[in-house]
Design the sequence.
């Protein structure tokens, strides 16, 4: 085959793929509008997997579908729209009558990572009647990574630890740590602890970490609350671990607290504190 013939064949193949994709999108859009509940949900999952604005736009009508299962599924299928557009179409569903629709909407807003969603999510985390929805909003605030949410999260972590609020407090501490970590190195999915390898093999001390407490008043206000949670033996283990991670990501002169807990009988907590000290040493 000549070079011209090869190029023509490649162009023809590309044209066929584009045509098939357009036909597929049309079919999925039709299914979203007029299919059964299961057909709509299947189409929404397929649109999500395509991961393009064009596919997400076809999922938008499902956000107002009469079936709550369809509405909840649609939340995760529109997230590849431009950030301002997706926030605008998702926000109304934070007030949906069904708990799990509000929950999935909150999670979806976290994936979008647009700071304009912070205030609505704070309101949901403050006032929603469902614990699961409130926690989804707290998680989403950590995903977004904007420091304007830190004061609200600190308020959730303030006060005496209670078994009934253990998960909420742990989630708040985790989100503070995720926000700090996102600012430090754009990592929004920190693993705590990173590993149980010797210190010289850990990535935690490889990068130069900033002292966020000197840059952001919110983090400076957060440190005493995080230190109190870390030092309190009555605090839930998960909350103490997340507080330790957050302190390590922020620093601000909290190294003594990390040192004290680096010999904790809680092996996970001790390792997180050691990693926090490695970050502090890189500053």
Sequence:
């Amino acid at each position: 085959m000549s070079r011209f013939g090869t190029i023509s064949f490649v162009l023809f193949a590309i044209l066929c793929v584009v045509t098939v994709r357009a036909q597929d999108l049309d079919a999925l859009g039709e299914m979203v509008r007029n299919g059964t509940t299961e057909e709509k949900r299947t189409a929404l999952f397929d649109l999500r997997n395509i991961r393009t604005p064009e596919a997400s736009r076809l999922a938008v009508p499902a956000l107002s579908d009469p079936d709550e299962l369809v509405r909840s599924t649609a939340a995760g299928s529109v997230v590849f729209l431009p950030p301002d557009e997706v926030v605008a179409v998702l926000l109304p569903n934070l007030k949906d009558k069904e708990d799990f629709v509000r929950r999935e909407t909150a999670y979806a807003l976290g994936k979008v990572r647009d700071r304009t969603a912070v205030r609505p999510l704070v309101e949901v985390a403050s006032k929603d009647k469902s614990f699961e929805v409130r926690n989804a909003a707290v998680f989403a605030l950590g995903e977004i990574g904007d420091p304007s949410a830190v004061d609200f999260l600190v308020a959730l972590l303030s006060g005496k630890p209670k078994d009934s609020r253990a998960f909420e407090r742990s989630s708040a501490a985790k989100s503070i740590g995720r926000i700090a970590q996102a600012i430090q190195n754009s990592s929004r999915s920190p693993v705590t602890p990173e590993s149980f390898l010797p210190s010289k093999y850990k990535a935690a001390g490889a990068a130069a970490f900033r002292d966020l407490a000197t840059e952001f008043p919110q983090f400076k206000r957060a440190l005493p609350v995080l230190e109190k949670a870390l030092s309190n033996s009555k605090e839930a283990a998960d909350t103490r671990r997340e507080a330790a991670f957050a302190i390590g990501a922020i620093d601000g002169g909290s190294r003594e607290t990390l040192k004290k807990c680096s010999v904790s009988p809680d092996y996970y907590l001790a390792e997180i504190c050691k990693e926090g000290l490695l970050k502090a040493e890189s500053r």
